[in-house]
Amino acid sequence: HLITTRGRCCLFHPGGRRRKAWDIMGMCFLLYDIFVIPLRFFDVPPSMLLDAMGWATMLFWHADIFMSFSTGFFHQGLLEMSRCQIAKHYAQTWLIFDLIVVSVDWIMIWTDASAQSTARVVRLSKNIRLVRFLRLVRMIRLAKISRMTDTFQDQLQSQAAMIQYSILKVLASMLMLNHIIACLWFGVGEASDENLNWIKSTGINSRTLAYQYTTCMHWALAQLGVGSVEIEPVNTFERIFCILVVFAS
After folding, report:
1. DSSP string, the chain
2. Nearest Cα to 71, choosing from 57, 89, 58, 59?
3. What are 112-151's pLDDT values in tens digits?
4. Per-residue pLDDT reduced to its tens digit, 59-117
């Protein structure tokens, strides 16, 4: 699993135990990102746990770049373990995306640090709400989820387990999509006209974080035809977003 022959020092087999363990860790961090990144559209109170997890997640994805440079790949059914070929393959596939996402991480750290300067909060508050949408670039990593879920699926030995896993994956995908839409709906309201948006019109801005989130989730589920909710867009930006969500649904 860890190739140490001459010219192939510290290269990992793509199907080896160490690589699978790394993918499982990546799945855990990816699930954390899927839940927390959209949730940042709300005014989530600061927390040492969230700060620690944020740094741990960022460091993991930085390390994943180096891990990708050290993991072999299959080409036309043959295992390629040449470091030069691995680097070339990674550069042609995920390297650019990973570098963009890592850059966004540092931009968000700088933005959060700027927001904590009391002398600049008023001037930056509107820009910070808009820059929150930049966090969604980190969701590019969702494209890697198929590779990581394959790691779990390879461990299943029975047909029944594979069917149950497929059903669970569909339900999780639906829940994930509605979570993202719900958070985006709140973000659209905050980013649109401050004097005319659905948040102000419903008075939800004065309610608790839990109530705001559950209301947005209720709205997102209603767009799938599951029940109804008395929340309507009140400006053009919100109306366009609703049209896109209905079309996607």
Report:
1. -EE-STT-TTEE-TTSHHHHHHHHHHHHHHHHHHHHHHHTTS-PPP-HHHHHHHHHHHHHHHHHHHHHTTB-EEETTEEE--HHHHHHHHHHTTHHHHHHHHHHHHHHHHHHHHHT-TTTHHHHHHHHHHHGGGGGGGGGGGGGHHHHHHHHHTT--SHHHHHHHHHHHHHHHHHHHHHHHHHHHHHHHHHS-TTSSHHHHHTGGGS-HHHHHHHHHHHHHHTTTSS--S----SHHHHHHHHHHHHH-
2. 89
3. 666 555 444 444 455 555 566 666 777 777 777 766 676 6
4. 999 999 999 999 988 888 888 888 899 999 999 988 988 888 888 888 877 776 665 55
The Cα–Cα gap between 203 and 100 comes to 37
Cα gap 181→179, rounded to integer Å: 6
Query: Which amino acid is it at 50?
Result: L
